[in-house]
């Protein structure tokens, strides 16, 4: 079995940047353009809404929730943790479900449900009630925390390995755009809606976010193309599917496969699987707490809550550029290992400045505005894993979701230990912890690449020996091959 790599497709020198591959036919270019105009904009908007609804908690906290509900202890980090618990637990059944159900039904359905859960937060009167709503938001958004691997799977179902990162990069800009928008919505709600119909500005923010979210979910039924084995016929016709199968088949990209329980033991017993898990855990823990900048601004006691939220949009605005640079450079310039190295190196600078702490205020402004590099490399890393497993959809589905479950679940307890709200804005343990993770991520990425380079070619299998896609021995050998190629 061959595995997609940057060397698997004819490409020109790095300085001759191009959108299409030189072996793409006119029909393939037309098909790719169609996908780019339908799939990529929608997943960007959907991920924007997801991050709008996830990050609005931080904005609500500095926008009046803290005082109104009496959250003067560690309630913020505990609410963030309840969200993570909901997202992690919701992903467990998703390991199996999303290889069976069409993506164009599953993703919009979860979008609509999390929109309803977002709306319910406007009526919260206590920590327990808000915690329950945050759990539900996390549970329904798990399709987006599985949507992160789900979108990686969806993109990986239509695009070849060297095409994934830049599409994933455009999609992932939804994270900083969502964070940015949450700040603007809260600032606007505080200034324009505070006290209207007896509701605080932060309560109006949740209503506005829900009004945005639910229609986006409905639209998804009509624009998500699904996967190549379960396509959405509203979007793609038979000719589109024939072109997709032909162009993916040129590099041995398998398009069908369902995860069975007996596959899991074989997948999880391989060393390379746990190396990928280790690297993903480092990635998830390498960034500072998402509310750290807002808490620092509020601690300065110079700005009202609306201004704090407005200034809070600066880091995610910079993060849009960081995300695009990391992902496009990965595809078009230097590959995933060096894109991860560069982005994580920039994030390490942020963590180092904040760990030292006693620096000029301008240095802190730089550090907080630079933290977007921590999430900029997500699609690079997961696109790399997606590409490693391109000939095994069932393994790709399991691996992308399961590494996400383990890595994200680690943040539930590391956040509580490293970033207790009462230590804001200094977070002496938190910034040092993030620094150790970001430096380790650089090392981990290169160790993974070195491991892949040293895999033995003798473990390759002859495709003619493959008689049953569910054969566990073949799956085990396929795992050794598909994870054996470096980038």
Automatic annotation (TrEMBL):
Membrane topology: Multi-pass membrane protein
GO MF annotation terms: transmembrane transporter activity
Locations listed in the record: Membrane
GO CC annotation: membrane
Transmembrane segments: 81-101, 169-189, 204-224, 273-296, 308-325, 337-359, 365-385, 397-419, 431-452
Keywords: Membrane, Transmembrane, Transmembrane helix, Transport
Keyword Ion transport: no
This protein's record includes keyword Transmembrane helix: yes
UniProt xrefs under SUPFAM superfamilies: MFS general substrate transporter (SSF103473)
Family: Belongs to the major facilitator superfamily. Allantoate permease family.
PANTHER family assigned: PERMEASE-RELATED, TRANSPORTER SEO1-RELATED
Protein name: Vitamin H transporter
Organism: Aaosphaeria arxii CBS 175.79
């Amino acid at each position: 079995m061959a595995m997609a790599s940057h060397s698997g497709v004819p490409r020109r020198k790095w300085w001759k940047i191009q959108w299409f591959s030189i072996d793409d036919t006119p029909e393939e270019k037309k098909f790719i353009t169609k996908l780019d105009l339908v799939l990529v904009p929608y997943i960007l908007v959907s991920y924007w809404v997801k991050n709008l609804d996830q990050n609005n908690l931080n904005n609500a906290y500095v926008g009046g929730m803290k005082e109104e509900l009496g959250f003067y202890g560690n309630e913020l980090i505990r609410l963030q943790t309840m969200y993570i618990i909901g997202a992690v637990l919701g992903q467990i059944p998703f390991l199996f479900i999303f290889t069976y159900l069409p993506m164009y039904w599953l993703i919009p359905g979860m979008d609509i449900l999390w929109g309803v859960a977002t709306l319910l937060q406007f009526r919260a009167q206590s920590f327990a009630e808000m915690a329950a709503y945050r759990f539900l938001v996390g549970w329904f958004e798990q399709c987006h925390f599985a949507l992160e691997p789900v979108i990686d799977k969806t993109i990986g179902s239509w695009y070849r390995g060297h095409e994934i990162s830049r599409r994933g990069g455009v999609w992932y800009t939804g994270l900083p755009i969502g964070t940015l928008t949450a700040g603007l919505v809260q600032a606007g709600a505080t200034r324009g809606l505070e006290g209207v119909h007896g509701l605080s500005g932060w309560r109006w923010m949740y209503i506005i976010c829900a009004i945005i979210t639910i229609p986006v979910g409905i639209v998804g039924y009509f624009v998500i193309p699904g996967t190549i084995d379960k396509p959405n016929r509203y979007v793609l016709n038979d000719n589109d599917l024939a072109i997709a199968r032909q162009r993916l088949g040129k590099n041995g990209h398998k398009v069908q496969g369902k995860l069975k329980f007996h596959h899991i033991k074989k997948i999880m017993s391989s060393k390379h699987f746990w190396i990928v898990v280790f690297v993903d855990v480092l990635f998830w823990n390498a960034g500072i707490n998402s509310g750290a900048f807002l808490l620092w601004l509020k601690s300065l006691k110079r700005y009202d809550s609306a201004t704090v939220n407005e200034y809070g949009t600066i880091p995610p605005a910079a993060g849009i550029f960081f995300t695009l640079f990391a992902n496009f450079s990965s595809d078009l310039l230097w590959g995933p290992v060096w894109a991860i190295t560069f982005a994580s190196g920039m994030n390490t600078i942020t963590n180092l400045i904040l760990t030292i702490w006693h620096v000029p205020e301008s240095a802190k402004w730089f550090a907080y505005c630079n933290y977007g590099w921590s999430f900029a490399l997500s699609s690079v890393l997961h696109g790399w894993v997606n590409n490693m497993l391109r000939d095994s959809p069932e393994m790709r589905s399991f691996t992308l979701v399961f590494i996400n479950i383990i890595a994200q679940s680690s943040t539930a307890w590391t956040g509580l230990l490293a970033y207790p709200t009462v230590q804001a804005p200094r977070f002496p343990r938190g910034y040092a912890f993030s620094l150790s993770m970001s430096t380790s991520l650089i090392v981990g990425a290169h160790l993974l690449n070195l491991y892949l380079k040293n895999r033995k070619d003798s473990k390759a299998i002859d495709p003619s020996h493959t008689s049953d896609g569910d054969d566990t021995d073949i799956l085990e050998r396929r795992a050794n091959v598909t994870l054996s190629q470096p980038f």
